[in-house]
Amino acid sequence: MEDEVVRIAKKMDKMVQKKNAAGALDLLKELKNIPMTLELLQEMASDELKEMRKNLTKEAIREHQMAKTGGTQTDLFTCGKCKKKNCTYTQVQTRSADEPMTTFVVCNECGNRWKFCIYYIH
């Protein structure tokens, strides 16, 4: 049954992209009596939507981590995107204790984010 739903959903996606509303509506009627689960709906998503969902999840995790630690406002860093120096940074020990801290930086002007880690050679 799941394979059938996925087949119908992919066909519907093509019809929607081609602006074939009548065809998409007919396919919706076929789906009406099939029970849907969250997993099934996620599986039916296009590759583009799956990639977007993955990126949004990563971004939400980063924002959550930045919000928890607060960060320090500085002009020490230059944003690679907008070239402004209005940034907030935080340092976190993301690896083992004998490795350097990872610095997470967010541009307060355009929202660009980056991270870096400086290794010292003795």
UniProtKB/TrEMBL annotation:
It is found in: Nucleus. Keywords: Metal-binding, Nucleus, Zinc, Zinc-finger. Residues 75-115 form the TFIIS-type domain. PROSITE patterns: ZF_TFIIS_1, ZF_TFIIS_2. InterPro entries: TFIIS/LEDGF_dom_sf, Znf_TFIIS. CDD domains: Zn-ribbon_TFIIS (cd13749). Gene3D superfamilies: 2.20.25.10, Conserved domain common to transcription factors TFIIS, elongin A, CRSP70. It comes from the Eukaryota. Coiled coil: none annotated. One of its GO terms (biological process) is positive regulation of transcription by RNA polymerase II. One of its GO terms (cellular component) is nucleus. Pfam families: Zn_ribbon_TFIIS (PF01096). The keyword Zinc applies. One of its GO terms (molecular function) is nucleic acid binding. Belongs to the TFS-II family. Necessary for efficient RNA polymerase II transcription elongation past template-encoded arresting sites. The arresting sites in DNA have the property of trapping a certain fraction of elongating RNA polymerases that pass through, resulting in locked ternary complexes. Cleavage of the nascent transcript by S-II allows the resumption of elongation from the new 3'-terminus. This is Transcription elongation factor A1. The gene is TCEA1.
